[in-house]
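Weekly modeling sync, notes
Attendees: S.R. (lead), two postdocs, one rotation student

Agenda item 3: backlog of single-chain predictions. S.R. asked that every request posted to the team notebook include the full sequence so nobody has to chase files. The rotation student volunteered to paste the first one in as an example of the format we agreed on. Action items at the bottom.

Example entry:
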Amino acid sequence: MLTYDLKKDSHTSLYEDLYQRIKKDILSGTLSPGEPLPSKRAFAKHLSVSTITIENAYAQLYAEGLIYSIPRSGFYVTDLSMHRGAYLSPDTERSKPNQTKEPSTPQKKETYFADFAGNEITPDLFPFATWARISRNVLSMQQEELLTNPPAKGVYSLREAIAGHLLAFRDIHVDPAQIVIGAGTEYLYTVLLRLIGTHGIYGVEDPGYARFTDVCNSFQVPTVGIPLDPKGVRSDLTERSHVRALHLTPSHHFPTGITMPISRRMELLSLAKTSSTFQYLIEDDYDSEFRMSGRPIASLYSIDSGDSVIYLNTFTKSLASTIRISYMILPRPLLEKFDADPSLTTCPVSNFEQYTLAHFIAEGYFEKHLNRMRNHYRKKRNLLLKTIEESPLGKITDILEENSGLHFLLEIPDPKTDETTLIKNIRKAGIRVKTLNNYRQKKDLPPRKKHSPGKQITLLINYSSIRPEQIPEAIERLYLGITQSP
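Predicted structure, as returned to the notebook:
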């Protein structure tokens, strides 16, 4: 079987590293035309990586035409003899040892007193006892299902449980057959690029969620950042950009916290219906479970009448960042493409995780867990806001968009130094934090709100991973970092 020493400690993702190595072997002739590639599961076990790593590497090779698939057989190396061009001979390539240099000393992970940029939850918030009991029941009662390959969309009981949850919580009426389960949102993004196509331009909010842009870049798909106004992503600029699809977070924009009003949503839906190029809105319902005031805003999907919206959500925020289970709802045209794609045959999430989560949702534990988490985060947010307001930090900052999701913005209207120096000073004080500019594609965009001189710096305060007892000292340290002289 193919063996590669993947760079697990590098800045390159595992699937990119694997894709590059297989590509090199195909182009050099080390892998012969028609040669079968290992099955995803066996290859993942052999390399000690996740199945999704293999899935993404194969997807990229498939998209570039370097491999082809035979239904229910697997992937095979494409014959490139007429197109390979001038490369080193296969024998020369094979004789070269892998000279990847290991770092002389292991890199130390930075530690902070408080992390306002992370999204991990503390162990005491996860329902371990309930999860363990359900897991034991699944192992004892569903042994046959656990050893049966799941359909490409995921096990039906989980899709049915998700449909029931969406109806009760988001008033979304959906057939479980439209739901696709994936191992993380990034995997679902790769599936969408295959279904919608890698030709044309994809629009992203600017500032916005960088993961979708990263996935597009890995497939060499161009993206364009579309600026926001107080109502969210601008529909006029979306139209002028001639995008094929637009990724957006309308219920709680990341990172600004803007909630898109119904008027702007209808503009975008109308544009998708009438445009000759613009086809789909990719709605990432980011943080919708944690709206801190009022009922959750109606989803874009629930008001779409033209099969234009793809709805995505994940359990990484509501349960734990290590539970890599996400899902999407496909409109009918893309659902037909998904069902007809011979390479989409197996769901990358294990049956065990899927059945456990299905019971957790269907038996009402997920709803109870969400209620507990909302109460916990509401108390933590209120304590954090009160601490800021009563501290010296409150006198030199403005708080924006504090009622949505698990983060808010802290604007510094008159910083003593530039942004890079400011972040270094805050880091020296033991605090990790990111700024709004970390999420911009166009770094020269003007600030969104207040204090028109334009010098202000806006911090993102993500409070999901900080403990309540840390808050007083964390705010004091943050203030010291901000006020430190250059």
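Discussion: group reviewed the output briefly. The chain has 17 helices and 16 strands.
Action items: rotation student to repeat for the remaining queue; S.R. to check formatting next week.
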